[in-house]
Specification:
Blueprint lengths: L21 E8 L4 H9 L4 E6 L9 E8 L2 H11 L3 E2 L2 E2 L1 E4 L6 H24 L8 H31 L16 H30 L11
Antiparallel strand pairs: 1-3, 1-6, 2-3, 4-5
């Protein structure tokens, strides 16, 4: 029974037996758009057959189509992308149709799934235990980090050298004005005078401390 168009799609898990390269597409507008529908499904893989199913029950002014893919993977991808998608104003309802499979189709489907599972097991078993698949990336990231640090040091050295050689970054003598404003130049001059006084006071204190002789304690001990 086709589900109602306003009914939300239920979450369902499909096994390999439920999946099939045969699909049934419902709620297709009755506009003679079979070729457009075949082209739409053909974008997901080779389509061997796309024909209307007149014997199927459907809503008024809609058709049901039978789509046959050459591979199960293509049918799975098409169902995942096109189910509940809008086609000419209607939401398509795509379902698997494993009842149309022959014995050979079922055998090929199961054999393909067996090979896929074995391939996954071998790939997981070939990886050494305790190693991460992102270890090469981590090693490259550490190498890139070391290279970035080297580039940063070289860049800072270049900037320092350019500042020394650039006349714009040269020191301004104390007897010249640095700012265009007189008040700011006066403030700078006052700060320089205080710094010079502090420096000269420190030099004098160190000189006097060096010139002083050590005092001798001549007091009598009892």
């Amino acid at each position: 029974m086709p589900r109602d168009r306003d009914e939300p799609a239920a979450v369902r898990v499909y096994t390999v037996c439920d999946e099939s390269r045969y699909l049934i597409v419902r709620n297709v507008p009755s506009l003679g758009c079979g070729d457009d529908l075949a082209n739409l499904f053909g974008t997901y893989g080779p389509v061997e057959e796309c024909t209307p199913m007149d014997a199927e029950d459907c809503e008024p002014y809609t058709d049901v189509f039978f789509v046959k893919f050459s591979q199960v993977n293509n049918a799975r991808f098409a169902k995942r992308k096109l189910d509940e998608s809008v086609f000419l104003g209607n939401r398509l309802q795509v379902t698997y149709a494993p009842q149309f499979e022959s014995l050979l189709d079922t055998k090929e489907k199961l054999e393909a799934r067996r090979k896929e599972v074995l391939g996954r097991i071998k790939s997981s078993a070939g990886r050494p235990e305790g190693t991460s698949q992102y270890s090469p990336a981590q090693g490259s990231s550490s190498g890139n980090h070391h290279q970035l640090n080297s580039n940063k040091r070289a860049y800072m050295k270049t900037i320092h050298t350019s500042h020394i050689e650039d006349p714009r970054f040269s020191h301004v003598p104390s007897d010249k004005d640095y700012f265009p404003s007189e008040s700011m130049n006066a403030t700078v001059k006052l700060v320089r005078e205080k710094l010079d006084k502090i420096q000269s006071g420190g030099d004098n204190s160190s000189t006097s401390a060096a010139s002083k002789k050590p005092r001798v304690d001549n007091r009598r001990r009892i």
